[in-house]
Amino acid sequence: MSWFTKRRPPPIRSLVGDGTVLTGSLRFREGLRIDGQVHGDVIAEGDGRSILVIGDNGRVSGRVVASHVIISGEVQGPVHSTELLELQPKARVFGEVRYELLEMHPGAQVDGDLKPQKSADKPALKLAASNDA
């Protein structure tokens, strides 16, 4: 089943708030929102679905791994999304990006390789329409 079905995303139960700086690996289950800075890997654990939101002021220097990843801030390191990766207009990614499905808004930037995971039954890329019209 994909994120585009009627399943609800997992709840966001943890927050790295704006002004917070965390050094070291961060592991989480279900949902996490980052509005501060993390200097280390951010990895969803377990076999269940997970969601990671990196807000406009959020910064991660390290590896990012979750099933659904939404980036509005900056990631310096590889990003691996096992289901859906959303790159919002202010997103900046410096590193290799692996995804099952990709939604990239105008203005988002990736400085690295985009590598889709192989899936024969789904399109790998969805271009987000501009809302400026």
Features:
11-stranded parallel sheet; mainly beta; 133 residues
Describe the structure.
With 133 residues, the chain is mainly beta. It has one domain (12-105). 0% of the residues lie in helices and 50% in strands. It has strands at residues 12-16, 21-23, 26-28, 31-34, 37-39, 42-44, 51-54, 59-61, 64-71, 74-76, 79-87, 92-94, 97-99, 101-104, 109-111, 114-116, 125-127. Strands 1, 3, 4, 6, 7, 9, 11, 13, 14, 16 and 17 form an eleven-stranded parallel sheet that branches. It has a six-stranded parallel sheet with strand order 2-5-8-10-12-15, with no helix packed on it. The chain is globular, with a radius of gyration of 14 Å. The model has no long low-confidence stretch (mean pLDDT 88).
Summarize the structure.
With 133 residues, the chain is mainly β.
Overall shape: globular
N to C succession of SSEs: EEEEEEEEEEEEEEEEE
> Radius of gyration from the CA trace?
14 Å
Largest sheet: 11 strands, parallel
Mean pLDDT: 88
- List how many beta strands DSSP finds: 17
Helix content: under 10%
Number of domains: 1
In the predicted model, the low-confidence regions spanning at least 5 consecutive residues are none
Task: Report how far the terminal alpha carbons are from each other.
Answer: 33 Å
Structural class: mainly beta
Approximately what portion of the residues adopt beta-strand conformation?
over 45%
- Counted by DSSP, the helix tally is 0
